[in-house]
Structure formats: C-alpha cells, structure tokens
Write a structure and sequence with these properties.
Number of helices: 3
Structural class: alpha+beta
Distance between the termini: 25 Å
Radius of gyration: 15 Å
C-alpha cells in the first residue's frame, strides 16, 4: 500500500507544535503475545499485548511492543495533529493521573523515542 509522506519538519518542537505521525503505521492490540508465539513458546493464558507495525524511513517494515499507556499516547498523537503537551494532557485526564507532571516527563521521553524510531515524522510546517 502506498502511503504518501505528509509535509513536515523534523526539527520542530514536538511538545509545542502539531505533531505529524507516520501514515504507514498500525497501532494494534492483541489478547495474546502474538509476536512471541512459536514452536518454543505457546502461552497458556491471555496476555494483553500492544504492538505497533510500521514502515520506517528506509521503507523497512518493523514492529515494536508498547505499554498500554504508550500505545494510547501514540493513538492520541495520531488524532488531528495535537502537540505533544496536548496529547499528554489528554492521556493524564483519561487516566485520572494523580501527578500529571510525572506523566509529562514520561510522555516527553516516549515522544522522543517515537520520533527516533520513525513512528512520528516531526511537526507540521
């Protein structure tokens, strides 16, 4: 499937500017750790698993496992180009987090990782 890359700047402030997510990603949730199932591993109980399948800058298809909070943050970032701060604030509200400032630090770190591996492309021009 061809996913054109939207216009973006890689040098913008992801926390304060509208974020551009990679258009070639799927944020998936499974009841089982599907990425580990094989001849040597057959789980006996469900184990909720959050995976992101995406195409990186080199057009290589990759996946990474996320925590439920990271997966939700990524979903929020892909919704109508919010800034990182706005997405993290929404996540704090959804979680009724008792210390939003701690969540802000966590979110800032996750957003940096997301851009580093190619889940986020940058910010709107």
């Amino acid at each position: 499937m061809d996913c054109p890359t939207p216009d973006h700047r890689v040098d913008g402030d992801l926390m304060r500017s509208p974020v551009v997510a990679n258009p070639a990603l799927l944020n998936l949730v499974y009841c089982w750790p599907v990425h580990r199932i094989g001849p040597d591993f057959r789980p006996r109980r469900p184990e909720p698993t959050h995976l992101v399948l995406y195409r990186d800058r080199d057009e290589i298809v990759r996946f990474t496992q996320l925590t439920p909070a990271s997966a939700r943050l990524l979903a929020l970032l892909g919704d109508c180009h919010p800034s990182g701060e706005v997405a993290i604030s929404r996540l704090a509200e959804e979680l009724a987090h008792p210390e939003p400032s701690r969540l802000l630090a966590f979110g800032r770190e996750e957003i940096g990782k997301f851009q580093q591996i190619g889940l986020l492309l940058g910010v709107l021009p």
